[in-house]
Specification:
This is Peptidoglycan glycosyltransferase. The N terminus is likely disordered. The radius of gyration is 31 Å and the shape is globular. Strand 8 and strand 9 form a beta hairpin. Helix content is 35%, strand content 15%. Helix 7 runs antiparallel to helix 8, helix 14 crosses helix 16 and helix 15 packs parallel to helix 21. With 609 residues, it is of the alpha+beta class. It is built from 23 helices and 18 strands.
Amino acid sequence: MRTAFTKWGNCLLALLVALAACSSPEQQTGQPPQDSETKEVYTRRRIVVADSLIRGRVLDRNDSVLVDTRLQYLLKLPRRFPLDTLALGLLLGWDSTTVRRRIAEALPYPDAPAGYPVQLRLTAAEAKRVRRDSADWPRLAVVERHQRTYTTGAAAPVLGYLSSEAQAFYRQAKRYRRGRFYRLRNGGVETYYNGLLQGRHGYLHPLVDANGQTHGTWAKDTTFRQGQDLHLTIDVKLQAYAEKLLGNRRGYLVALDPRTGEILAYVSAPVYNAATLTAPDQAGVRAELLEHEDMPLLNRPAMLANPPGSVFKLVNAAVALQLGAISPTTTFRCDQSLISCVHRHPPGKNLTLGLKYSCNPYFYQVMERLINRVPDTLAVVDTVATRHTNLELWRRHARSFGLDSVLGVDLPREAPGFLPTPAYYDKAHRTTRWTYRSIYSLSIGQGEINLTGLQMANMAAIIANRGWYYPPHLVRSVGGSGPLPRFLIKHRTLIDSVHFAALVPGMVAVMQRGGTADASSLADVGITVAGKTGTVENDEGDDHAAFVGFAPANKPRIVVAVYIENAGFGATAAAPCATLVMEKHLRGYIAPRRKRWEKRIQHRAQNGY
């Protein structure tokens, strides 16, 4: 045993000697540097260029400050209850119910002991009153500290939080099943752009002689850089409005400018207040969010990929047009024996009418032609190889929409979604001889297809632009410069623009009389909307509602994608939310005839159904 220990010690000693031999002579001797001729010894110095780093602000597209580092006032309550909530309320200008609610929100769990430390945020006026009456309340203490302050309750997943201020949330999250999941995926722009927001100190590293003269440097100097402001693409007023439309329902809404890829509104529902995850008096609210069955802390537009439903018929039609499987005038019977339609409608005699009525048999046959298509150059047909080749060709064209891959939005995490491959079906069916009938759900955007909310919105932006897009992003400028360079790179699909133009008449017809979303038309205010509804079948409950669209149809300025879980038909649940957001953005207000409609949607959102 001793022999083995001795051998191990000898090996370790040899390793240390080797490392010492590789280090610089200065590191070996520990001697300060000196002039080779005069032998004068120099002193290493480290000089701070500037020591007043100020973290940058976060502003919306109209320069409204959303997040800033400001002085906060915290009221520390005495460790021992009971507390005279009525008297405290009179001191602060609150009623006793508000005092009890604020204290309950500050406790991490309902049965927290009476001596649990509690801090309540105060306004400057409230803090002044407490200090003025400090003689009557000797056990109350007001503490001041600088912290990131949210001036809005909206856009919580976008704004995110500063990691150093979210330590209490991290500790709470460890007690819950989803704690690690939330910690990794919800940092927003505060985390993504942390280095630019924080800035950096500048340091000089001179070698100085006894007279204070500089003789070169002993390390590389660093340049001081003040924290940069972030100017978001978000319109905070539109964001707050969109959040009222989704409220406590599960789902998402993404609105963007197709001309630039700038995200105008980004809603992940159920919504919560932006300051909740870092506020010292919101531990109880955080506990509710962590335990909530609807998972409000999940960043749905970026992280949750779902089957898109009938909105994906737009992609299938574009690919089929490009590959010559159909033309805009192609006619198919509404054959209910192939696949059923969810509603009665006139026959879809061409692509425009097929989109207008969202005819499932029509798009079943579109996809069937695409998958079973046999090139004229083949004399002998191998149907198995042909199906594999055609499915891979379909997938290659669909991926050029930015699907089955991350779009690169400026948030910490993003899911890629999924498009099936031939190998996937070979493995799933345990044979290479699967047929179109076993994968036909792709024709209506179901089955194995999964898209994120960002991909749904970007897909609509591509159609609005007739074949190209800029990656969706949340920051339009950092300091005085523009967005990150990669957001200025134009991406093109493998589909010719003429085929996207062929889709638009059908999308416009969707919003006209007889179309699946005619009730959501904005024609009365002179806005032509191009859209597509989707109703996603759900085996575990009510169907999910989906909608994508853009307006004005001829020169699009806004694209909206909406997905509401368990809400039923896309036409009745998702489309109204999308067109209200379009109208709000394009006109600034909602027409009187839709006010009752708007109020009903907001009421449902508030009650979560």
